[in-house]
Design brief:
alpha/beta; six-stranded mixed sheet; 25 strands; flat
Amino acid sequence: MNPRTSMLWKSSFTTLYVYVSWVLLCLSLFSSFVTFTNALENTFSSSIASTTATASESLLVMQDINILIVTDVHSWVAGHPHNDTLNVDYGDVLSLYQRLKVKSINEKKDLFFVMNGDFIDGTGLSSYPPKHLIPILEFMPWDALTIGNHELYRNSTIEYITQPNGFVDFWEGKYLTSNVFLKETNQPIGSRYRILKGESGREILTFGFLYDFQNNCEITQVENVEKVVNDSWFLEALGNDGFDAILVLAHMDAFNPLLDIILAKIRDICGDKMPVQFITGHTHQRKFHQMDPFSISFEAGHYLDTVGFTSLSFNASSANFEHTFIDGNVEDMKELLGMAKSDSFETELGKNLTDLIVATQEDLGLNEKLGCSPKTYDVSKGLDEPDSLWGFYTETVVPTEFFKGSDSKLLIQNPGGFRYNLFEGNVTVNDLISLAPYNDTIYLVGEGINGSEFTAAFGEARLVNGDSVLPQMIVAGKVVADVLYDIYTVDFDVDFTKERLENATGTTLTPIALDGQTTETLWGAYIKDHWQCPISLLDTVSEEEQSWQDKFRDFFESFTVVKMIAFIMTFFVVMFFGWMFLCRHPQQKVSNTDDFESQSFDDGSGEVSYDYSDDESTSAFPISAIGANTASNGSKSYHAIGFV
């Protein structure tokens, strides 16, 4: 290659190198300014928050004995992703308890944390057996807990929690089942009662009762409350001296007459002035009932929409009960504790539990998107309402995915099979399970059943009685007299449906389970086939997956004053360096061809020539930016340029 041409190439490469370096420097400066202004903006926002929301006195007034309560959570430990006002998960509840515990110790009060049953059946975290949910529950530092009716529906659940070193054993006597037994051993699943001891030295005699439940699984037995309160062990427990109050975890309505039976027996033995606190549940409502001057019953909602708090102070002549329904909202909890909005609510253990819940959901694939609902369907709305979940199911989902256009099929089931709303927008695996948590198998109960016989067995289809919004039994399909139908139901209602049809027809029926056909698969098939999502909803990505273009756009979408300042600062820095590097000595650019005239070159043999320039100040760039090899010879700099 001609030496002159080679030198020109080298000079052009050097100029390109400087341009690239300049651009990279500008980008680096801009990135630094963005980081700086973001930090400044966050600090500025925090300072505003701290001036508008300062800490105040706690609104939760503690008395001698205080109880924090969760009941009927039904595996909603991750909170409600479709409801911004119910943003609490079990990690937040644990954080609340830990903060209240510190407060109780400082004030020399007693605080107890209890769970009142029905932890299963509700979301994708629940299963049969509940092996994914149990590790989450064991994170909670409950002082006492009891069993709900939902834990008793399946043998697999009871076998799992009662296995050696299992869930029941984990609680070391804190799991209370005063009237629920294992048939095989004729012993209670947990403990009959327990003495809770507070920091102050107070002792609370604690029981765990279930209402007179009859639909329990084969390996369990629920004894009637009326019988148990007369058993010798119960009478002996009440007859012991030393406890200061009585706590009854009662998985039943706050106004259930069974509570009066329990209280009457307590009054017979312990007197009228023994403080008695009933923690109730099962109805999924917020309720409070003053039973007598020294006794109350209190129920704290469901699905983690509520965390209950009760407190009690007493003396020989009077008792004072206070109660609070705490919304499942972090900001409300902070306000109750007297914390500023800018304060961090989450404790270390609370965060660890939240992380465990999120990781479990990810491992189970519960966040997988199935489709997109065009609107919200309400599980509590009547069949004829346009946004009725049951109406849409019976009029659209079942005929489309199960009947397949046939007019000779009827599906009947009770309205308790669906438990939650289906919300507009993305529908995930967890949403589907939350809607139909039992995943009931569909059964063929009878074939060739006359429509009039069906009506005789179940009454007029879609008929609503009393104050109910939904019929006692919901029917998909149109019932016409003298038309013959194949009758289907779900596994929970098989025995009921079979008995009613046999009585109406005078025949013996043998129900047959349909392999792979469940209420959940019907919904899933319909959603996938008919509710495809727009691409924009399916292709949402996390911040880590965003391209630099997306991040750049997102940055300027929130173009605040401080970010504008950063942009202006970067602009001036770019102009300054542009002037320094490119405009300061334009007559001395390396690419100037006049420089080549003063160079001495070989005859093209490939030997190296040297530049013996004494004055470095005349160069627009440092020597190190021009070539690869530099040597020193006295006061001269030898800059070597090689040719190939």
